[in-house]
Design brief:
Helix content is 8%, strand content 48%. By secondary structure, it is mostly beta strands. It folds into two domains: 1-43, no CATH class; 44-438, Porin (Beta Barrel). A 16-stranded antiparallel beta barrel has the order 4-5-6-7-8-9-11-12-13-15-16-19-20-21-22-23. The two termini are 25 Å apart.
């Protein structure tokens, strides 16, 4: 109810300030005056519904991705089939009074993001973004709020609707925290000729969306540095996977990322508060989680390739003497040596390395064919996130209106580590068919 009241208040505010005509069959009476609300004349899929007035503008976008999934661990002889919503998002963007100040809010009605835990520690499975952004100049931007962070792999820099594959890579699934709440800075500097440098600074909770309830640990500090040797991509092409613009000259961005979470309470920063530890006085004490990334994106004449290398490590405090259950009860690590305690804490963190490479080509017929390979190598003491350590994907896509309307068919094969394979099970095969529309 509060969400609806806030939305009506914003729309009403703009309607009361001389809305400009656009093009929809609707009339609204406000303060005794009749105003016409219309879609913009040149509307195309993905542009959304625009409300514009003398004091600002608001855009509403709705995206829906529905999928059919068939999986099997034995060559499709014993299949599991089902239907799923990958995403069902409503996004509101706009500015009021000052063009240098913008806002963004997004909810995802899909249940795919539901927490694996229970109780008060589970995160909000609807709210994905809620931030305010201030740009004092075209080269400097600050934002505060909840959003997909800059300090994950480049895959996360690309919205789900603009991805080339139906599912994100195994590397991204294992190491990317995705959403987090905090304050950030983005810069853009020309360093000579066509070369560009873009620094990103991030100070967040390190708890993802669970940080909106409580921040159990310290803060997460991160930095990304992107280098463009051949100028910027056309029309924001570095925020999309395929080469939709068919770059006439080679375009490349190389990025380096480092982040330190001073108090990690989940496997990779996705669901804060999942794993809590305490000292002899039962004060919460948490490990320090470090992540380093090297990634790139290249595009030229319909061809693109993207890849990343990720490495994570942790420092476990020696003062840890026990852990907290989800119920809140404290359980001492009775009879465990300091080495065993260290190993136990590490076993709940995603520690190790990951590698992912993908490439594809967009034909002039607006069909595209792409392939991807991902590899995971877990630390000897860490969680079993890398049980399926080799992952192969192939996707065929028909773009009916760019990323705003497309149909995709994807085949994935995830291979178990050699010591986990059996005579009947060596991996999992997944076939997916997805329809995507962005209004």
């Amino acid at each position: 109810m509060r969400k609806r009241m806030a939305l009506f208040a914003i729309v009403g505010f703009l309607l009361g300030n001389n809305i400009m005509a656009q093009e929809i069959d609707s009339t609204l009476a406000v303060s005794g005056n009749v105003h016409i609300l219309r879609l913009q004349k040149s509307y195309r899929l993905g542009e959304g519904l625009l409300i514009r007035s003398s004091v600002g503008r608001i855009t509403f976008n709705q995206s829906i991705q529905t999928a059919f999934i068939d999986s099997s661990n034995n060559g499709f002889s014993n299949n599991n089939t089902g239907f799923s919503y990958k995403r069902a998002r409503l996004t509101i963007r706009g500015n009021i009074f000052d063009k240098s100040i913008t806002f963004n809010a997004r909810v995802n009605l899909s249940s795919n993001y539901a927490s694996a835990t229970t109780g008060s520690r589970s995160f909000n499975n609807e709210l994905e973004e809620a931030l305010i952004q201030y740009s004092p100049s075209p080269t400097h931007t600050f934002n505060i709020g909840l959003r997909a962070d800059y300090i994950d792999t480049r895959e996360i820099r690309i919205e789900g609707e603009d991805q080339d594959f139906i599912s994100r890579s195994a590397t991204s699934s294992a190491f990317d925290a995705v959403f987090d709440y905090g304050i950030r800075y983005v810069g853009k500097y020309n360093i000579g000729g066509r070369q560009i440098l873009k620094p990103y600074l991030s100070l967040t909770t390190g708890e993802s969306r669970a940080g909106l309830q409580k921040n159990y640990g310290g803060l997460k500090y991160g930095m990304r540095l992107d280098y463009y040797p051949f100028d910027d991509f056309s029309h924001g092409g570095d925020a999309r996977a395929i080469d939709e613009e068919r770059e006439p000259t080679p375009k490349l961005v190389i990025g380096a990322v480092c982040s330190i979470n001073k108090g990690a309470s989940s496997a990779a920063g996705v669901n804060g508060g999942r794993y809590l530890y305490g000292d002899v006085n039962q004060n919460i004490v948490l490990p320090e989680y470090t992540k380093c990334i090297f990634d790139y994106l290249f595009k030229y004449r319909g061809f693109y390739s993207m890849g990343n290398i990720v490495n994570t490590s942790a420092v476990v405090p020696t003062s840890i003497t026990g852990s907290y259950k989800v119920s809140g009860a404290f359980t001492p690590f009775t009879g465990l040596s300091s080495h065993q305690i260290d190993s136990t804490v590490r076993s709940y963190l995603n520690l190790g390395t990951g590698f992912s490479f993908q490439a594809g080509y967009l034909f002039k017929s607006n069909w595209s064919l792409s392939g991807r390979y991902s590899f995971l190598n877990n630390d000897v003491y860490t969680a079993s996130f890398a049980s399926f350590n080799k992952n192969y994907s192939v996707v065929l896509t028909k773009y009916l209106s760019g990323n705003n309307l497309k149909v995709q068919a994807e085949f994935d094969y995830s291979q178990l580590q050699t010591d986990l394979q059996s005579t009947t099970t060596k991996g999992t095969c997944i076939g997916q068919l997805m329809f995507s529309v962005n209004l």
